[in-house]
Amino acid sequence: MAPSHDAPVIYPGSFDPMTNGHLDVARRAARTFPHVVVAVVANPNKRPMFSAHARVAMLRDACSGLSNVEVASFDGLLVDFVRQQGARLIVKGLRIVADFEGEFTMALINRKLAGNVDTMFLPASVEYAYVSSSSVREIFALGGDVSDFVPPSVLRAMADLRRDVG
């Protein structure tokens, strides 16, 4: 389903932290669609590494060269945010086959809840297929170097976090 020219597509996620794989999906979506909203979910049930506000700031910095990309945050149901934005298409990145089952289930649920909302899956680029936010958090927590896995704005924030904790 092609979105209308005025309607954005929504690229949602927790982005905790944003990885180069996330940025790759945002760039590819920006080449495909005239307006992309990267939507940071502020899930109160999780204990994030970074606040939603900090994640939005890092994403805005990382996506600053993408003129048709905006970054926003939301809480609650994704389909409610999608409706508020006037969107009809959700873009999701898939790294590995195991991602597909959960993402496909959510796509079906979102379609059932919203009726007119579809999901498009973008497979990860080969160089990012093994990178996940959880692996980045673990490497970071164990004192490892994550500079190859995250954009510079995220690396700076992680270094600040390490200084604040250390």
Describe the structure.
The protein is α/β, with parallel strands linked by helices. The protein has one domain: HUPs (Rossmann fold), CATH 3.40.50. 44% of the residues lie in helices and 17% in strands. The protein is built from six helices and five strands; from the N terminus they run E-H-E-H-E-H-E-H-E-H-H. Strands 3-2-1-4-5 form a five-stranded parallel beta sheet, sandwiched between helices. Helix 3 packs across helix 4. The protein is globular. The mean pLDDT is 91.
| CATH fold category name | Rossmann fold
Going across the biggest sheet, name each strand in turn. 3-2-1-4-5
CATH superfamily: HUPs
Query: What Rg do the Cα atoms give?
Result: 16 Å
Shape: globular
- Characterize the biggest β-sheet: 5 strands, parallel
Helix content: 40-55%
The CATH architecture can be named as 3-Layer(aba) Sandwich
Number of strands: 5
CATH class: Alpha Beta
User: H/E series, N to C?
Assistant: EHEHEHEHEHH
Uncertain segments are none
- Chain-averaged pLDDT: 91
N- to C-terminal distance: 49 Å
In what range is the share of β-strand residues? 15-25%
Total domains, how many? 1
Number of helical regions: 6
Structural class: alpha/beta
